[in-house]
Amino acid sequence: MCRGGRMFAPTRVWRRWHRKANVTQRRYAMVSAIAASGSPALVMSKGHIIQETPEVPLVVGDKVEEAKTTKEAMMFLRKCRAWSDVLKVYKSKRFRAGVGKMRNRRRIQRTGPLIVYNKDQGLVKAFRGIPGADTIQVKKLNLLKLAPGGHVGRFVIWTESAFRKLDKLYGTWRKPSKFKTNYNLPTPKMTNTDLMRIIQSDEIQNVIKRPNRKVLRRNPKLNPLTNKKYMGKLNPYANVERKLSQHYQKIKIERKEISRKKKTGFFLSMLMNVKNLYFLTYFYKFALHCFLNFQPEFQKRRRQGTAIPPKMKEPREKVEPKKIKFIGKKMKRTKKTKSGDAAAMKGKLHKALFKPGKPKPGASKGVKTGKTKPLPSKDSKTGKAKPLPSKDGKTKKTKPLPTKDGKTGGTKPVPSKAKQVGKPKIETSKPAIPKLSQPKSTHKKDAKPTPKQDKPKQAAAK
């Protein structure tokens, strides 16, 4: 492989090198380019330096066609005061800014004057060494030379014979062309192109109407959904609605903030909002348990009996609606039993856990809490339980536990108070009823107490 490789999509012979254009269009473009070369304003606008030239278009004698050396051509341009346009080309020589440097288009420069001749008697060789200067024959005028880049207004130097031959090539407004059949020059729409001078003339100013100085300004179209002021014009109540919505939004935010603070506050404050009785009782016990565990000083005072629990109001019990019972066709209303709600259970549990002694009448049976009682300890000699000390310092009397009878299988009767003076007394639950071998009667009237069951009742009565 060669360094750099082959060219991508190389040029072929069958490439479409040219584009078809109508003959009339090409002639129209050529005539326009020739006409533009005679306008000093257009020529100067393309960058040509023609401030010192005697006239535009510049027409010289036919002796220029006899110049054979570059020196003679330079002397001719200096006499015509067109050499400054060539010096501009010398100064503009530079490298192309782009990839064209690598595509055989490395250097670029400005364009100079174009010399149009009728007969070549050495003129082409004389001017080909001058940078920017081009030569062309009258019958072979090229549009790319007259208007390089498609921009009309190039600086053209004509010889006398070439300039006279233009009438025969393209004709005039009076005579048609001799070399081009059925072709006439395009006629201009205006004979005088100074439009401002025509408008400001007295002949036109006296006829036309006076200018209307009144300016009618239309109201701009505004979107009422985005423009509050415009919405207020269309709907005056929109401002009130907007203020109300802002007010309600502010209240909504404040309520959310209050509820957030309530939720993030002390966990016991949430108990009143809970309506589930089962969950409330469980959660309240758990909360109090955690609260007391984290306060060792309070635990010590509680054991000593000096703790002062916080006072709480007794909650009222809710009265539930009457329940209707159906008795045949008639209906009977009965009062439902009162049951404490969540708040009542909360107060009862609080009292049961903190306040010692018996609960108040009417309250539910809770767990007795107060001063912690020491458990009875066993005597090392006798093996029996020691009597518990009372508040006065005296020993408490405890009831003996009932024992089972080995023969009958029932419980032995507890001895009376007179026989058990001085012995420890222990509170116990009701004695267990022994299982009878006889079958139980189905009727309540037939059921009679056995003699074994009457003995403990008689002892208790004594």
Q: Short description, anyone?
A:
This protein has 462 residues and is of the alpha/beta class. It has 16 helices and 8 strands.
Q: Mean pLDDT score, rounded?
A: 77
Q: Please give the CATH class of the domain at 23-170.
A: Alpha Beta
Low-confidence stretches: 329-339, 363-370, 441-447
Named at the architecture level, the CATH assignment of the domain at 23-170 is 3-Layer(aba) Sandwich
CATH topology of the domain at 23-170: Ribosomal Protein L4, Chain: A
- Label the structural class: alpha/beta
Query: Could you give the distance between the termini?
Result: 133 Å
Strand content: 5-15%
Count of DSSP strands? 8
Please give a handful of descriptors for the protein shown:
alpha/beta, four-stranded parallel β-sheet, 33% helix, single chain, Ribosomal Protein L4, Chain: A, 462 residues
Summarize the helices and strands and which ones pair or pack:
Layout: H1 23-36, H2 40-45, E1 58-60, H3 70-79, H4 83-91, E2 94-95, E3 107-108, E4 114-117, H5 123-127, E5 134-137, H6 143-146, E6 156-159, H7 160-164, H8 166-170, H9 195-199, H10 202-205, H11 228-234, H12 237-264, H13 277-293, H14 296-304, E7 323-327, E8 330-334, H15 342-354, H16 451-461
Parallel strand pairs: 1-6, 4-5, 4-6
Antiparallel strand pairs: 2-3, 7-8
InterPro entries: Ribos_uL4_C_dom, Ribosomal_uL4, Ribosomal_uL4_dom_sf, Ribosomal_uL4_euk/arch
Region (Disordered): 303-322, 330-462
Protein name: 60S ribosomal protein L4
